[in-house]
Structure formats: structure tokens, C-alpha cells
Amino acid sequence: MEAALHFSKRITLFVRILASITIVLAILGLIGWLFNYLPLRTFLISNAVMKVNTAILLILAAGNLIQMAGKRPYFWLVLLLSGIIVLISIAIMLEHWHILALNLDELLGTDSKIGSSSPGRISIAGAICFFCIGIAFPCFIYKRYRAGHILSIIVFLTGYLIFLGHLFQINDYYDFKSYSAMSVHSSFAFLCLAQGLLLLYPQHGIVSIVTGPYLGNLMARYVFGIAMLGVPPIIVLYLYGLNQNIYTPAMGALFILIFFFTTIFLIYHFIFSKVNRLDQELHKRYEQLLLGEELSQVGSYETEYKNFTFRGTPQLYRIFGWPTVLAYTDSSLDLLYKIIHPDDVERVRIVVDKALKEIAPYSINYRVILPDGQLKYIYIKARVYKNQDGILCAKGTAMDVTVTKQQEAQLQELNRELTLRNEAIQSTNEELQVMSEELSLSNGALRVSNEELTALKADLEFKVSERTAHLERTLSELKQRNEELDQYVYKVSHDIRSPVASIAGLLSLIEAESDLEKKHQYIQLIGNRVDRLEEFINSILNHSRSLFNALEYKPVSLNKIIQQCLHELEYYPGFDQVQVVIDMPASDIIQSDELQLLIIFKNLLSNAIKYHNPRTESKVWICVSYTDEYTNIQIQDNGIGIAPEYLGKIFQMFFRATQRADGSGLGLYIVRQAVDRLHGKITVQSEEGNGTKFTIVLPVAHANS
């Protein structure tokens, strides 16, 4: 948005400069008439002069242009001046056609130059240009941008053709009787006015094809620049060849055609090849973004509140249980409000209305009831803004947080259980107090011996201490589970939202950026964020599968497991820089769970590749041996190693020993869980700068069978 605002300010400044140049040229022409100084009327080129009426109308038109480029233009004044310009231009054309004789050309100053068919009169070409300019201003005021741009293009082409005639001394272009007689500074002034009109509203009408931030707009700018800058050199070559008798006019025309089409072909080939490559890359990154949204359960959308419509990505429609074929099409916001839980509708409306009123970001949690009756919890985060037409819009994301809410409910249940256990402990203490008092009262009545009372007290104290210790252990375990679950939920939510927010920001930059190279860089950054998000989600899935999938013991080939992991890591960054050496017996079948083994090998091998030492010949050694009851696995590398102070922490959840590479911090934690589920043991030896060795001992029913 800031880049677009800066671009708009620069365009407005340029329009004012063009209008100022026009006024300066017109004033020079008037000074030439006032002091009868011919060079200022002809601008030292050709016999065509700037007429008094031309100078006056140019000043009126330039004044209108400055008004329109201002923050608060007086539209009534613009319409008044435009009407004057149109009426005078019509009267001049009627005089040329001998329909009307107002003698406007002799009111303020006459041209006595020999050879002029109409002394002091603006040419038909000039009158047509003023007529188009006078009509263009009302078109822009009443938002008929396309019509205004067409009229401005007519003025631009007329001025451009006459200016080239002066530049290359082609008399018929600028001095053909009463039709095209126009001075060089008049034609240049028309060029300035036409460009100012075309750039007055660059985001609308025909001009938006050239000024927009997209690939097609960039290609249009190339083509327009080539057309405007390519014509003069071609004319120069053509005229030079004719003057030097290098070729005949027919041969010259043929040469121009061949040169033109060859140049156009080469330029179009370059442009379209580059556009196609970027389009393919963008399509690939777009598919990765959609996959990232699907895996992270986050959908994005944009709304327009004037028409009360929204459009979203396929994942948004999946979250709300709608057909994905509706994605990217305008849908009514009523569709969204209909599925919001009745108890949440009013709260949502209040938050959204406040954000629209203040044009501020907002976020909110609410419930939805899907068409199939399913209840979901949704977290919305959005940013409200005004588009180029001043219409209130919003862009945001919708995240399915149903699982998080369920986990929060489980935590609340655990807290309630802790409260009940604390109450039970307190109740037990009260019961013991009552029992102690009863024993004290019955001491005399029952004449219980001191030995029996002592034994009874000791027995009661033992039971109380045993129950208290059990309750304290339970309380400690529940607190630990509560803390781990809080940490897990926070970390997962943060590490998913961070790349999604980064991707949304980069997409906004791509929409606002006009530089093709920067667009390509932003696309690469989006790819990196998507890859990072995919790696983190895979780690979470592995963690979930390792925890909750039932163990399935069956004959498993360790060599097949290793080869499968290496194949999946084939495109992993740094894979081609590491040599893997495998040493195992010919018979590699063990009785174990295949999924847990895949998790162990893949995480350890990916770490060895990720943290290899680029200054040495990187190697990874995998050694497998068997005993009657155990399978011994060693995975060793000569990578960067682990600092001694981190060795005791590497198996903790979300711990990362180095910032050299991105990682989820779950890999080794998942490996230890997988080893524990197989009732095995894992140890690590490492020396910083010299590599790391993991040793895994797994009990098997039949090792080496």
C-alpha cells in the first residue's frame, strides 16, 4: 500500500510538471506575439508559428490539468474552462469549412507570414486536439476513463506525428495547408498535455494496462517504450538512405519492414520467454502455498464491504465445509454469517463493525456450525483498508483451531481433577483429625494399652504418608503434563502462524511491486517459507504417529529401511555433499515395528546431512550388528558436532543446539520417543567440530533370522 501511494504521488508530480511545461511554452509564444519576435513564435524551426489563440487555449487546458491533479479540484471551474475550449475549437473548425465566420483568428493577433492560407487561425489538427482535450476533462470528472483516454491518445498521436515532422523536416507532417500547420513548440505542448491527461488516473481505463504492477502491464510498458523510441531511429535510417541514394523508396520501405518485424520478434521472444518462466515458477509456488494452507488448516480471503462479498482460497472453503469449486469467486458475506453459531453472531458483528469504522486490524475467535452439523472453532485475523476506489476492504486468514480448543478443554479437565484431589487430601486430613480425637476420648473408656495405641498411630501415620505421597506424585505428574501440553500448543501455534504471516506479507509485496526481479525474489522467499512450514508439519505428524500408532511387530529389512530414507532425502539440501557408508550383515531382517524404525533412521540421517561440515569430505557411517537378543545400530558422521553443554538437552522437545540451519527442534525428541516405544536405549557421543555418533540398542524377538 505504501509503495502504491508513493507511486501515485510521483505520477501526480509528473503531471504537474507536464502542465507547467505547457504553460511555459504558451507564454513564450505570447511574448513572441507581444513583442513581434518571430523566433519565439516559430521556436527557430520551420515556418509554422504558434497562434495567439493556440497559446491562450494551451494555458486554459494546462490550468485545468493542474486543477485535476490537485487534492481538491474545483470541478465547476474545470467544466467551465473545458466548455470554453470546446466552443472555440468547434468555431475554428466551422470557419475552416466556411460554415461560420466569427474571425476568431483576428481578434487578438494576426499572422502575416507569406504562404499561410488562414492568417492567425489555428489549424484543423490543432482545433481537433483542443476539442478532444476539452471533452476529455468532463469524461474524467464523470469517471468515463476509457473515453477520456481514447481522446487523449488522439491528441498524443497527432502531436507526436507533427513533432516527428519538425524533427526530420517532413513538411507535409506539420505544414500541409490549413490541416496540419503547427509549430514545433505547439506540437510538443500537445504531447505534454496528452501525457498529463493519460497519467491523471493511471489506475483506471486504458492506461492501467501499462501502469499496473502485473506481468502483462510490464510487457505493455516494454511494447509502448519500443514503439515510441523505435520510430525516430527507423525514420532517420530511412531518410539517410534516400538522401545518400543507397536504396530506392520501395527498397527503403522493405528494409524498414524487415528491420521492424525482426526487432519485434526478438523482443517478444525475450519478453514472452521470461514471462513464461516466471509464470511457471509462480504456479509452482502457488501450489506449494495451497498445500501449506491445507496442511496448516489456514485459509486466506479478501472482502469488499460495498457489495458485501468475499472470495477465498480452496482451504478456506474446506474449513467451512463448502465446495472448493467456489474458491476465488465472489460470494455473499451472508453465506459466512449464516453458519456462525447463534450465540457468537452479535459479538462478531460488533468486532467487525468497530474495525471497519476505525479502519484497523482485528482478530476474533468464534464457533461455526457446518452444513453437516459439525461444530468448529475458528480464529480470524484480518486487516481493514481502503482500495484505490476508496471502498472498504479487508484481507485476512481463517484458522481451524478446533483441536487446540479440545486440548484446552482437556487441560481444564485436568485442572478440575487436581482440584478434586486437593479436596480429597484436605478431607482425609480432617478425617484423621476426627479419628485422633476419638482415639483420645476412648483411651480411658477402652483402656487400650500404650503399645496398642502406638502401633495404631504408627499404622495410621504410615497410611496417611503413603496416600499423601501418592497424591503428591499424581499432582506433580499432572502439573508436568499440563506444562508440556501448554508448551507444545504454544510452539505449534507459533511455528505455524509465523510462516503463514510471512507468506501473506510477501504476497502483499508482490501485488504492490512493479520490479520483475524483486517479484522473483519474493516468490523464492515464499517457497522457502512453504518448505519450512512443510518440514515443521511433517515433524508434528511424525510425533503424532510415533505416539499414537499401535506397534506392529513383523519381519523388517533394515537395508530396505535405510535405502527408503536415503531416497526420500535425495533432494534434501546438502545431500549430494555427503557420502553414506553402510556396514551390515547380509541377513538384515529383524522383528520390529517398521514405522518407528523409519522415524529413527530418517531423523538421524537428515540431521547428519543438515549439519555436515562443508570444510571436510563429509561422510556418514551406518553400522549394524546383532547378538542373540539385541540389534546394535550406530550412525556416525564427521559433521560440526555438538557443544558439550548441549549434550544433555538435545533430546528435549523443541531444543535446537545450533542456529546454523532451520529446524523444528522435534527431530531428536521424536527419535527418543520411538526408541522408548521399542523398549530400546539411545546414547550420543559428540565432539564439537569432529562429528557425532548415536548408538541405539533394540531388543528383538529374532535378530539376524
Automatic annotation (TrEMBL):
It catalyses: ATP + protein L-histidine = ADP + protein N-phospho-L-histidine. InterPro entries: HATPase_C_sf, HATPase_dom, His_kinase_dom, HisK_dim/P_dom, HisK_dim/P_sf, PAS, PAS-assoc_C, PAS-like_dom_sf. Residues 491-702 form the Histidine kinase domain. It is an enzyme of class 2 (transferase). Keywords: ATP-binding, Coiled coil, Kinase, Membrane, Nucleotide-binding, Phosphoprotein, Transferase, Transmembrane, Transmembrane helix. Residues 404-435 form a coiled coil. It comes from the Bacteria. It comes from Xanthocytophaga agilis. Its EC number is 2.7.13.3. Residues 362-413 form the PAC domain. This is histidine kinase. The keyword Nucleotide-binding applies. Pfam families: HATPase_c (PF02518), HisKA (PF00512), PAS_3 (PF08447). GO terms for molecular function: ATP binding; phosphorelay sensor kinase activity. The chain crosses the membrane at residues 12-35, 41-62, 74-94, 122-142, 149-170, 222-240, 246-271. Gene3D superfamilies: 1.10.287.130, 2.10.70.100, Histidine kinase-like ATPase, C-terminal domain, PAS domain. Signal peptide: none annotated. The lineage of its organism: Bacteria, Pseudomonadati, Bacteroidota, Cytophagia, Cytophagales.
